[in-house]
Design a protein that fits this description.
This protein is of the alpha/beta class and 468 residues long. It is 44% helix and 15% strand. The strands form 3 sheets. The protein has a 7-stranded mixed sheet, sandwiched between helices. Strands 1-2-3-13 form a 4-stranded mixed sheet. Strand 14 (407-408) and strand 15 form a beta hairpin. Helix 10 packs parallel to helix 11, helix 14 (327-348) packs parallel to helix 17 (426-442) and helix 16 crosses helix 18 (446-467).
């Protein structure tokens, strides 16, 4: 594989087969991830993408209902986003000793669609970086240190973002984390007010809908009352809209379902149109000026690649597509339809325990409702396996038998997310519903699903071996 100087050229990299890609990742990247993806036969090589569709190296076509974990609201390779990047390719992409017209235009456009008085943007490269910047701004603006976050939340895996991410598995190996971070239950206003009462909290950071927690939707009025409580105790309200924002839940931002106006709002994922990495937080003018309004504080928080020309061009185009194609409305209509049909499946399947979500951010939770002789005979082993792998088995069946790409949520592996590009068609939604119905009708238990999944994986691998 290696040529001159031991390097693999771009041309050679594009022509690598599946086994060669596996070998490179096994040797030089994450070997454990290779094992996991190979086990589920998720490591196939995709070579083309457009809209909601993918094609692999064998020429097979797939529907993408994973959507880059919410990064593909505008779909794969939207022509307007690609054209925007192409239009600026002659500009200096990185030029810190200047003021970027594209960054200025993007910030103005974001302020035009953001809720409430959100006005001033900071651009970075990812959602985790947006969270890092937001909590830093909250601390310096308030002069306080405590940060309040919720159980089952996910805000990123860099050190500051991890410190306000509510899962023990991700936090424990890296302790001590950032000090003065307090976790409370999600959707619990009494717990929030108790944490706020000492008046020492800089910020409360919350997802309007918990994505990686399992697509958890709070009770009506929770966000609005949480914002009121934060204002009462002088704490800034940070809405993490990295996954829920830009039309995903049926409004431009999920907090708008309750008319909530955050003090700081975090964005990333679909902001780059699925083409360029870009993150941002948007703050009120008042919060920003308290934090960075003086000359001596203007450079306290910066990013080398934040606001680069290519990323800003992609974001300007992506935002225009979201507005002009009315993707929030499309997400609302298609989401209502999909949730209704999934509810009908739930009523007939012993494996679906819940369906929840809003717009096209939907979670289907799987759990066995009845425990039979096989479970007792295995001394509870099947129960444990079902708790950890049922969602991934359904995702495997959807991919291997029906060519539908999905995945489970990080904090709840028995919830698979349905998070397609917002321009997905009703016919494509019906196909996925039919595929899921077929899987659930054929498999009425975890044991049956496990056997079926193994057979599917072996069948796919056997055909691949025959072709080689």
């Amino acid at each position: 594989m290696a040529g001159k100087n031991g390097f693999i050229t771009l041309e050679e990299a594009l022509s690598l087969d599946r086994d060669q890609v596996r070998t490179l990742h096994q040797e030089y990247l994450n070997a454990g991830l290779v094992t996991l993806l190979k086990l589920l036969d998720f490591d196939r090589r995709f070579v083309r993408a457009e809209g909601v569709r993918l094609w692999d190296s064998e020429g097979r076509e797939y529907l993408d209902f994973l959507g880059g974990y919410g990064s593909l609201n505008t779909g794969h390779n939207h022509p307007r986003v690609i054209a925007a990047v192409e239009a600026v390719r002659q500009l200096p992409n990185l030029l810190q000793a200047s003021l970027s017209p594209l960054a200025g235009a993007l910030a103005k456009n974001l302020a035009a669609v953001a809720p409430g008085n959100l006005k001033r943007s900071f651009f970075c490269n990812s959602g985790a970086e947006a969270v890092e910047g937001a909590v830093k701004l909250a601390r310096i603006a308030t002069g306080r240190t405590k940060l309040i976050y919720t159980e089952n939340s996910f805000h990123g895996k860099t050190m500051g973002a991890l410190s306000v991410t509510g899962r023990h598995k991700y936090q424990e190996p890296f302790r001590p984390l950032v000090a003065a971070c307090q976790v409370i239950p999600y959707n619990d206003l009494a717990a929030l007010e108790e944490a706020l009462h000492p008046k020492d909290a800089a910020a409360f950071i919350v997802e309007p809908i918990q994505g990686e927690g399992g697509i958890n939707v709070p009770a009506p009025g929770y966000l609005k009352e949480a914002k009121r409580l934060c204002a009462k105790y002088g704490t800034l309200f940070i809405a993490d809209e990295i996954q829920t924002g830009l039309g995903r839940t049926g409004r431009m931002f999920a907090c708008e379902h309750e008319g909530v106006e955050p003090d700081i709002l975090c964005l990333a994922k679909s902001l780059g149109g699925g083409v360029m990495p870009i993150g941002a937080y948007i703050a009120t003018d008042a919060a920003w000026k308290k934090a960075y309004g003086s000359l001596d504080r203007a450079l306290l928080h910066t990013s080398t690649f934040g606001g680069n020309a290519w990323a800003c061009a992609a974001a300007i185009a992506a935002l225009a597509v979201i507005v002009e194609e009315d993707l929030p409305r499309q997400a609302a209509e298609k989401g209502d339809y999909l949730i209704k049909k999934l509810g009908e499946l739930k009523a007939t399947s012993p494996l679906i325990s819940d369906v929840r979500g809003r717009g096209l951010l939907i979670g289907v939770e799987f759990a066995e409702k009845k425990k039979g002789f096989a479970h007792k005979f295995a001394f509870g082993l099947l129960d444990k396996l079902a708790e950890e792998y049922l969602g991934s088995l359904v995702a495997g069946e959807l991919l291997n038998r029906h060519r539908v790409l999905t995945a489970y949520t990080l904090n709840n592996p028995n919830v698979i997310r349905l998070e397609p590009p917002l321009g997905v068609g009703f016919a494509e939604i019906d196909y996925v519903l039919g595929a899921l119905a077929e899987i659930l009708e054929r498999n009425r238990s975890f044991l049956g699903l496990a056997v079926s999944g193994v057979k599917s994986t072996l069948r796919i691998r056997g055909k691949a071996e025959e072709k080689r």
